Structures are given as structure tokens and as C-alpha cells.
Amino acid sequence: MANRLALVDDDQNILASVSLALESEGYEVDTYFDSEQALIGLIQRPPALAILDIKMPRMDGTELLSKLRQKSSLPVIFLTSKDDELDEALGLGMGADDYITKPFSQRLLLARIKAVLRRIGHETSPGPKADTISHGDLVLDPERHLCSWKGVEVKLTVTEFLLLQALALRPGHVKSRDQLMDAAYGDSVFLEDRTIDSHIKRIRRKFRAHDNSFDRIETLYGIGYKYKGDA
User: Fold this and answer.
1) pLDDT given at position 87
2) Distance (Å, rounded) from C-alpha 188 to C-alpha 57?
3) What domains appear along the chain, each with residue ranges and CATH number?
4) pTM higher than the cut 0.70
5) How far apart are CA 199 and CA 225, in angstroms?
6) Contacts of 61 (CB under 8 A, 6+ apart)
7) Cα(191)–Cα(104) distance, rounded to whole angstroms?
């Protein structure tokens, strides 16, 4: 199971190309073209991680994840073509571990898979490690992609963590959207500006859920971001 993944998508071309890329990296891949059959397969033959397309006929990825969560805590990465769908999927708190917006590079997907598997494969140990990044109440653990604020874990997706890490690594330096895109997605993927904006908004919202007095984390620690609409 540790080296077996599941890929659920109604696009046969994506199933073929992505599964080939994953297999070339040493993974065994179960592919599902039908989401209802996927639900049965994911429960009866659980992989280490599942990659779900959001837009599928009969039962979309969000509904599939909702039903899967009734039986399993299987790690999940969403594939989506619209950021609006991400707002709905993650806003409902359904438990996706990360998500990637199409089009994406296979290198990016492999990096996200490895990051999620690495994160779930380690128990959280008390106290910061030597390679953690600390700024006052903010502590980041890059090895396991874990984040804490005032000693309480803030659950971020891998994408959100990488964006926050990019900001935290050089306090006082303002980063552009392009620099943040490169940090979180690599230089081979093109994204609209609003994708990064949505991620930053989501990060702020998660911190405010833990701390009502939370102001923008960029302001608190001199971490800069050229964000459209910010003063």
C-alpha cells in the first residue's frame, strides 16, 4: 500500500499520461474512470494516497470525497480546472490534503504527492526541530509541511505551506506574485494572478480562525507580498 496510488479522472488521456509518469517513478497506480466504481475501490483496496478530479459526471470529486470521508481518512489531492471550485471544496472543510489547478506539470504533481506522503508518514513530535523556521508565534516545519501559530497547529495544504514558507524565508523582502508562483508551483506552470490571491486569502482566513486578533501575517513579521487591493 505504501507505494500504491489511486488516480480518478474521467479523461482517459490524463489517466494514461499521469499514471505512466507515476509508474516511471516507482509507484503502483490504480486508475478509475468512473467515480462510483472509484469509491468502492478506494474503500476495499485503499492506496497510500488518492488523486481526484473535481469535475466528473454522475458523482464529482467533492461528493466522492464526502462519501469517502465517512469510511476513510485516506489522503487526497484534488485536480481542478477552476479556482472557484477550490473555494467550495476546501471551504466546506471536507478534508482534502492539497490541490493542483490544471494545467499542471507532472513534476509538480510528483512533488505534491511526495510532500503529502512525507507529511502523513511522520508523527508530530513536540518542540521545533533544528531545521524549522520560527518568527515569534509562527513556526514552520519544512520537512513535514507543518505549521503552528502560538503553539497550535494550523492545517495548511502543501501549496499554502509552500507559499507561506516562501514569504517567511526572507522577512522584510516583498515578493511578487510571480516569485510566489515559482516557489509553490515551479517555473513551468502558468497561473492567473487571482490563483495566488485566493491562496493568500485562504491562509489568512485559517490563521484568523485560530486567533481573532490575528492581523495579516505579512505585516506581523515584516513578510511582504505584492497583493492587489492591499494598502
Assistant:
1) 61
2) 30
3) 4-120 (3.40.50.2300), 133-225 (1.10.10.10)
4) no
5) 12
6) 8, 35, 52, 53, 54, 55, 78, 79, 80, 89
7) 9
Structure letter (DSSP) for residue 137: T
Residues in the chain: 231
Which residues neighbour 10 within 8 Å (Cβ) at sequence distance 6 or greater? Answer: 33, 34, 35, 53, 56, 57
Backbone φ and ψ for 8, nearest 5 degrees, come out as -120, 115
Position of cell 474512470? 33
CA 88 vs. chain centroid, Å, equals 15
Task: Pull the grid cell for residue 209.
Answer: 480562525
| pLDDT tens, residue by residue, 94-148 | 678 888 877 778 888 888 898 888 877 744 444 445 478 887 788 998 877 888 9
Judged by DSSP in three states, 215 sits in coil
How far apart (Å, rounded) are the C-alpha atoms in residues 83 and 101? 7
Alpha-carbon Rg for the chain, nearest whole angstrom, is: 18
CA–CA separation, 6 and 206 (whole Å): 29
Q: What are residue 79's phi and psi, to 5 degrees?
A: -110, 130
